């Protein structure tokens, strides 16, 4: 593949200039008590320091989140001030696809020649998400319906269905076997703990202190709280909430942040601790499937992407995805005739949680780190967004 075949030929991701917090489950840590935008900015400053990247190198900041937070109106410039580098930027939001989309948009800024170093910072705090009160001006009386962010997971305005209904509906369409779904969920847990015990996760996850507004410590985030070991017997004994969906075969809400840099080729060599490693953007695509069939949307995105690039699943050194339901992986494996044990080898959101905004950023960081440990190759990252959208991207680690 030549440079002419690349989606963003001028953009690079400097190896090692990334990091993610651990993702504690909803309301299990001090992250439930802080402004997540401020925490994310301060944490990015900490991570850049650990990676040996002067924050003065940053020229622009793309942030991504899905849950409203205090000061959100001021978006990226405010977060950049918390980081300690007063630079411009903007906010992006695309449900669960936010974390990957932010990286791709940063690459577009570099490709356009606008900036040489763009920071990507994604974050979300699902704990204590805000409640909005909206005047209904079309009513006879100006009623005030109240909406909680969590309502969106239980009600798709286009269909009236909940996210869990999407998984059950797709499971019935593809005639997925409950036993296989349970086995996959158990295997994903085993993959996570294997990566954790091997020290792999320590290469991408950074323990971070949580401070209050006075700068006093509230706690330390140094574990994916909420993850527990499961036996296959326990998973199989869980009650079905919808077809092939149980509490053990779906993800859980969590809080966290993840960050990386996107730069020009020359800057990547300058900022990376291993300048011989080159990470390029190959291609990206998005699709939309029929309503409430979200688990099949990533599959279609990957099929479209492979057709666009001429690559095959056999060309992929690393395959990782955002899998809020185990059903997603089973459907992908069945249609693509791809062994699901070869995916998500270092863990996945199904196990370590789903803070939404940074989910796919952490997936991407883990995928790139795994590819480097394997000696390079193509990296396929894909996932879903809300009820019927799929996103997929291929990168190349040389």
Can you give keywords for this protein?
about 400 residues; alpha+beta; Peroxisomal Thiolase, Chain A, domain 1; four-stranded mixed β-sheet; 12 helices; globular
Number of helices: 12
Instruction: Kindly provide the name of the CATH class of the largest domain.
Output: Alpha Beta
Specify the CATH homologous superfamily of the largest domain.
Thiolase/Chalcone synthase
- The tally of beta strands, per DSSP, is 14
**Biggest beta-sheet profile:** 6 strands, mixed
Query: Helix share of residues?
Result: 25-40%
Q: Strand-residue fraction?
A: 15-25%
Order of helices and strands: EEHEHEHEEEHHHEEHEHEHEHHHEE
Distance between the termini: 12 Å
- Count up the domains: 2
The CATH topology of the largest domain is what?
Peroxisomal Thiolase, Chain A, domain 1
Sheet/helix structural class: alpha+beta
